[in-house]
Design goal:
The protein has 587 residues and is an alpha/beta fold. It has a domain of 103 residues. The chain is 32% helix and 21% strand. The strands form six sheets. Strands 1, 2, 3, 4, 5, 20, 23, 24 and 25 form a nine-stranded mixed beta sheet that branches. A hairpin with a 2-residue loop joins strand 12 and strand 13. Helix 4 packs across helix 6 and helix 6 packs across helix 8. The longest helix is centred in the N-terminal third of the chain and has 17 residues. The chain is globular and about 80 Å long. The two termini are 27 Å apart.
Amino acid sequence: MDAAPFDTVIGHGFVVDGTGASGRYADVGIRAGRIAEIGNLCDRAAHRRIDAGGRIVAPGHVTQHSHYDAALFWDPYCQGSARNGVTTVVNSNCGFGFAPVRPADIERTMLMMSTTEQIPVEHQRDGMPWDWESFPEWLVHMENLPKGVNVGTYLPLNPLLVYVMGVDAAKTRVPTDDEMVTLHRLINEAMDAGAIGISMSAMGRTGNSHVDFDGTSMPTDSMDHDGLVEICRAVVERGEGIIQVLSRIAIFGDRVITERIGELAKGSGVRVVHNVFLTSDLMPHMPAEDIAWLDEQRVLGRDITAGALVNRGWVEMRVHELDTVAGQLAGVRRIVATGDGDGLRDLLGDTEFLSEFETEYSSTPQFGPGDFAGQTIVGVGNHPELEHLLGRTLGDVVAETGQTLVEALADLAVRADLELELRSPSVSATTPDQATTLLAHSGVVGGGSDGGAHTKTFGMGHYATDLLIWLVREHGLLTVEEAHFQLALKSAQSVAIHDRGALLPGYWADVVVYDLDELYFDMSSYEKVHDMPNGDWRREGKAGGYRHVLVNGEVTFERDACTDETPGRLVRVTVPRREPSGNVAGG
């Protein structure tokens, strides 16, 4: 037994180690940022003691699907996630990100990200230095940025394809043999430097809300599947890392590309993370069908894990932000491209446009939050004559006026001087049975906050807090031991992070201390938080209640208050095959 003093001892808590094993009352000793010992440590020396007082002591939450790439430049704590016990995030999902990028393509890249993940161009321009080109240089920035969370990241394929082929070629053809060699070299270079693998969206050209600023498909959504499979061969031949694929969202997309990549990677040691499994009040059969598909893949020997979004949440938006729920519609994309001003007023008054939009909307299958009839009116600006509509749905308005849904939407938006705000139906099922059905499967992983994207319309940093409240406290469908396995170790293991997500000796000391009864999540509305570049605002779930959050052994939050400590590290899961480019320290 090592008699050296601990840096910190968390004492008298109910320790839930994250493995699913039964919790126990014990002390947790931390030394050099890692868990050193768990047991009776009351007589052992420590530089600092935290009295957990019978509260739950558990591993910090691991978000395996986020988009905090830009946000980290102005917010080390990732927009509410860290306050809600998230200690590790994985960025650059779905093939969207900021590197590699040539100087001449910076503006084009910002425009892409303004529509694919709805990160405003002005935030990117004002908050990011844009002094990198290669992906290893990007990772140097991620390593050196002060961080209140640990950060892993994919190499996103869309900027990589643009970097090698140019944007027009990347959207219209497969890479040449020479370009494929370059792509493979750069993938290995990025993974040598610390990328956990590659990510892509492969939703195709129809039914896809992740589109470029001009309404065209992104390169990976446009490319022939043979080309995408060949690109993935670089990771498979390397024999380590993750390939993340967004190929189906509810009724949209096609999972065949996931299947092909899974077959390519079979037996290689490379895992495929498929996105996304969802729950829905309108489609209660969907989880069972998704699980049946996943079971088929695993029987075939394909190492495929499915990411799932199962927590409670919704979208709040103005009319020019409808792409969050219905970006696959050409009419919505035209509204977004027009911007917020006189041009939009003119467009919404154009009867020919409205007729075309109505035809498109009525002939396109709608799913959950994209259903215009279910949008609730929650804001009308400074227009008292419209306040009687607050709390009513667009469907109610249509029933009273005889307008079509598109006409009612456009009319109210103009009458409210474009300050009409809508709240969508729930993005997931409102009863917990579908969530527990998905999470019970060994190959389905929660922890998909989508944080950092869509900042004007929602914030899902609350996802773990909500699941603890909803599934453990309110319904008793999960024990705290089961919940923390889902929220931490299962999520970490899904992306090959093997030293986080559990309170075990040798693991990094990412810890939450809380009383289950003190956690809160206000579902009445999102909060507008003015902490973006130049004081701009974003939406965030009003949630929290943790007594302490520790990252690598340092307290980052205490009773929802930030300590301003930034002990976060860059997370690596691959082994460099050669010296990485750039000065990237180990982590």
